[in-house]
Amino acid sequence: MVALLALPVSFPSVAQLAVSGFATLGLTTSNNDELIFRTSINRWPETGSNILTESLVGIQFNYQASDKIDFVVQSILENKNYDSVSDYVELAFMRYQIDRNFALRIGRMNYNAYILSEYLDVGYSYLWATPPMEFYSPSSYLSYFDGVELQYRNALSEGVLQATFAAGTSKADLLSVGSYSSLEYDYMLNTSVSYETDNWLFKGTLSHFSGHSATLDGVDQLETLVESFPQQWWPFMGELLESLEFKDQKIHYAAVGVNYNDERWFVKSELAYFDIEWGLTGDLGYGYVSSGYEFDHFTPYITFALLDALYDRHIIASPRYDLIADPATQQMLGFLQTQFQGLYDSARMDQYSVSVGARWDFHHDWALKGQFTRYRINGPGAGLWGRDRTESIDDHKHVNVISININTVF
């Protein structure tokens, strides 16, 4: 449904308003409350069996002003952080159809980085009860951007070729247990190319980001404490604090994906790579492959997903305890070392999973889904999970998650 926003079509000359919506009511349960499952880094983690982890409701307004200009506004209520009216606005853009092939969008738009970019929040539109965490959590942490996008579409052979180029600014919320952090970008550039036929979809994406500022929960207080001690007591600290500076840090993202659907077999796979210069984390490689087969409105499926931290664990060097005579000061510096190590470990992501599930299309515009996923998290790489920063994983942990939800569009 939401994907149709990107299609160039012929509109009537009379202005008209269309209202549509989508909703998911989900129950999520897990066997581990120390590592809290969440569908996205920008959603609050909830312990125990709950309906907040996956439930949401969205409404969308489409106003066709003329045969060339239309406006789209979308709002979603979900379990994330809301500080201002702007946080309730997921989409708000004007589209100008330049000609048959070119369209220009200005405003707040989806970050076009993966196959489900236009409709990740519309659970009814895809097979899974929960999309692969290893791919969609890091790829979708930036859900929208404010800027401009130029789109080109044209028929090619038996399919449709689409290319987009976008530029703008954005902000990403990073939520965990009792903590709120955020990343702001001076600018982002994104280009994508896709080719779609009746059965196949191929897509490739390249993105470039330039950091503006990072608000990391508790880090300002830690930096103030560290700077109150003589530098020779902890020579490594100067280098560490400099590495946390987000201004002008560069991030590059690349992804490729393929989707096959012949109305019986469903196969989808995506691979992505993050090249990150920021000191707090490092390069990431991740992806998944998923397949399902429909039996008379009932579709079982299986998914394999992997996320690998392509860098060595950051080890915080110890202070020069031999230069410090006061035991209380030694204890304070030891506490700071533990806190900074926990900060770096909390950003590391390293895990894989196997999911089995089924979708039942029991009524027009309604679907019931169930999914069981077994995760292996390689310590200390639990950055996708909600947790207390002081919690650590020495080797690895297994977590089982069950998701049951009802999805609809209206």
List key phrases describing it.
disordered N terminus; mainly beta; globular; 16 strands; 16-stranded antiparallel β-barrel; 410 residues
Task: Characterise the protein shown here.
- By secondary structure, the protein is mostly beta strands.
- It has one domain.
- A 16-stranded antiparallel β-barrel has the order 1-2-3-4-5-6-7-8-9-10-11-12-13-14-15-16.
- It is globular and about 75 Å long.
- The N terminus is likely disordered.
Largest sheet: 16 strands, antiparallel, barrel
Measured by DSSP, the beta-strand proportion falls in: over 45%
Helical segment count: 4
Q: Compute the average pLDDT.
A: 93
Class based on secondary structure composition and strand pairing:
mainly beta
Give the strand order of the largest sheet, numbering strands 1, 2, ... along the chain: 1-2-3-4-5-6-7-8-9-10-11-12-13-14-15-16
Q: What ranges have pLDDT less than 50 throughout 5 or more consecutive residues?
A: 1-12
Please report the distance between the alpha carbons of the first and last residues: 10 Å
What form results from the Cα inertia axes?
Answer: globular
Approximately how much helix is present in the residues?
A: 10-25%
- Quickly count the domains: 1
Architecture blueprint of SSEs:
Blueprint: E1 16-30, E2 56-64, E3 69-77, E4 89-97, E5 102-110, H1 133-139, E6 144-156, E7 159-176, E8 179-196, E9 200-215, H2 219-227, H3 236-243, E10 250-261, E11 265-276, E12 284-293, E13 298-309, H4 327-346, E14 349-363, E15 366-382, E16 396-409
Antiparallel strand pairs: 1-2, 1-16, 2-3, 3-4, 4-5, 5-6, 6-7, 7-8, 8-9, 9-10, 10-11, 11-12, 12-13, 13-14, 14-15, 15-16
Organism: Alteromonas lipolytica
Protein name: Porin domain-containing protein
Signal peptide: 1-15
